[in-house]
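Annotated sample (chain length 169).
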Amino acid sequence: MMRRMIISTPVIALGLLAGNTFASDVGRTTSLPIPRFVSVKSKPANVRVGPSVSYPLKWIYVRRGLPVEIVAEFGNWRRIRDWAGEEGWMVGSLLSGNRPALVAPWSGAKPVALSSDAAENAPAVAIVQSKVLVRVVGCDGKWCKVKAKGSRGYIRQTRLWGAYPGEAF
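Output written by the structure step:
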């Protein structure tokens, strides 16, 4: 019998989940898809009201590795959106192309099974609590292979904020 463990170190945040769309444009500065998911590289990382240090701070990230969505570019500034739908501007050098995700961060979400394989009937190797940060290894459009607190497995792509539904990478 396989022993299952429960993974639960949720990232605490407030707000509602913003809707995601597939990338349909490219950034003027980077020529990379807009929107796209990235992560916060530095801590602390300032988020401003506008794309310049002359704009006031909106908030400060104090944890690195959190997923954010780039929704616009202006020079070396990126307009980002967090899982709660909050938007602001961050210098691009504070962001990384790494792909983390939050497990079902929306209100009232139940824990998610981390499966041994990308299949509905695959046995669970762990149960992952809502808002837990995972590292996304890759997605096939339906399932994402993730790492979470020493466990590896698959989670339905629709249960993650950090990968668009149907996106393969």
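Annotation: The first strand starts at residue 5 and ends at 7.
Annotation: The chain has a mean pLDDT of 88.
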